[in-house]
Amino acid sequence: MELISIVLENFRGYHLKHTILIDECLTGIIGKNDAGKSTIFEALDIFFENSSFEKNDRCIFATEEQNTSITCVFKDFPESLSLDATSQTTLESEYLLNNDSFLEIKKTFRVNQKITTEVSIIANYPSNPDLNSLITLKNAELKSLIKTKGLDITQVDDQRSNTCLRKFLFSSEALTFQTKEISLNKEDAKNLWENIKSFLPIFALFKSDRNSSDQDSEVQDPMKLAIKAALSEIQPKLTEIQEYIRTNVEDVAKRTLNKLGEMDSNLAKDLIPNFSKDPKWDSIFSMTLTSELGIPVNKRGSGVRRLILLNFFRAEAEKKFKEARNRSIIYAIEEPETSQHPNYQEMLIKALLELSLSPKTQILVTTHTPALAGLLPLASLRYINKVDKNHIIEHADTNQILDKISHDLGIHPFGSINDTQCKGYIFVEGVSDVVFLQHIFSKIRRKFSYSKRLY
What is the rounded CA–CA span in Å between residue 19 and residue 5? Predict the structure, then answer.
């Protein structure tokens, strides 16, 4: 499935409804610090159930009656679904698509003493009395409705199939339609949600501040993450080994205490076999990446470590993608320019652009660097500007968005430099460069004259 838009409502700084369109290949989200770029990625991470919704994720400006919701709209959904063991159906024939014939899934979070999550589909669903909630009814309830309406149930192709029962009821009268939010948390609709979940894209988020959320040792050497990942895959076997060792050691300890009891029963009663703590499997294995000269990764610069960590993240996400077979994948990468030399920034963006052209692959990036934004396709840009309590989201359709981005990110080009007395210009980065040049020129002022002008 392909993500085409996300709607945030009362999520963190996004008060009321805000829609962000997602490009089929690459989407670049541009804005100042704290404009709300990372919030979009973290909302997606919650939607795809990689992280959990917390109480402080609710917008502080929302009233008690206003709930928080994250809605994702998809296209290229599966042609058929199996909602029961006996038959296949489609989202279209079940009337579970929205007005634009897309699959629209909404997750609503209610914050009370505990957080509850409701999953629903926004669909253009039949509004006829008795037919406006068929997807939530059980088999016996569908059969009962057919009898209540005086219909001949023997005309149903397969009475064991809820799909066939619903199809028969829908065909029994002329339908009228209305946009409706259908809960997938109850009764037969739960099967629908579990089925849809298996087709959702894999979402992989790489945060700009990943080093503040991972253990220092993991950031110093990404291979420790690989060791943890491998250990997690064989955790049942490790538990079995742990129990085997525990059982055998305790057996030896008990036999030893029994023999001790024959000599001193009081001393034997005071001794109890006990494992002080579970083994830390990840500390047993050690692997490092080193250069040809033997320099380990943790002695390299932060930019190199981040680049390695980023590509470890890509490798792991690609592995999940291959294991999931027909599912698509969404890479969300925050500020790929962080700690990178400009040459590596350009190289990284080109690699992401190439990756975005792969089948069933979407790339989302955030940045507040003008140079990096300039490398992205114009149509892919989404500009976020925070004004007071509101977020303004603009989608690229003309070059005007570039003017807004450049102005907001601090690019103020001048028209021209005209000075007939000047033979050359020196462009500097800051005050320190000016001080240095003034000192140098003071030593050679007899041969040259200069004028400090600010443009």
Answer: 7
% residues pLDDT > 90 (the chain): 33
**Considering the domain boundaries, does residue 185 fall inside one?**
no
- Predicted TM-score of the model (pTM): 0.73
- Is residue 243 in some structural domain? yes
Domain final position from 221, 252, 281: 281
Q: Given this model, what pLDDT does residue 292 score?
A: 67
At 23 the pLDDT is 94
Question: Which of 246, 281, 316 delimits the end of a domain?
Answer: 281
Q: How far is residue 319 CA from its own chain's centroid? A: 16
189-221 b/e with 16+ CB inside 10 Å = b?
bebbeeebeebbbbbbbbbbebbeebeeebbbb
In a domain, 67, yes or no: no
Q: Whole-angstrom Cα distance, residue 166 to residue 139?
A: 10
Render pLDDT for 319-335 as a digit per residue (tens, 0 to 9): 777 777 778 989 898 88
For residue 273, give its domain range: 235-281
Which parts of 214-341 fold into alpha helices (H)?
216-220, 223-233, 235-263, 265-270, 302-323
Token representation of residue 53: 């919704």
Nearest CA to 332 among 64, 1, 13, 3? 3
Phi and psi, residue 137, nearest 5°: -85, 145
d(CA 443, CA 446): 8
The answer, yes or no, to whether residue 166 has pLDDT greater than 90, is: yes
Question: Total structural domains in the chain?
Answer: 2
Going by the DSSP 8-state scheme, the letter that residue 380 receives in this structure is: G
Contact status, residue 232 vs residue 34, Cβ threshold 8 Å? no
**Confidence at residue 453, expressed as pLDDT on a 0 to 100 scale:** 55
**Residue 304, both tokens:** 């190199």
Q: What is the CA radius of gyration of the chain?
A: 31
CA dist., res. 78 & res. 90, Å (int): 8
pLDDT in tens, 126-146: 999 999 989 989 899 999 999
241 occurs within a structural domain: yes
Type of residue found at 71:
T
Q: By the 8 A CB rule, do 215 and 104 touch? A: no
Q: Looking at per-residue confidence, does 386 or 407 come out higher?
A: 386
In this prediction, residue 415 carries a pLDDT of 55
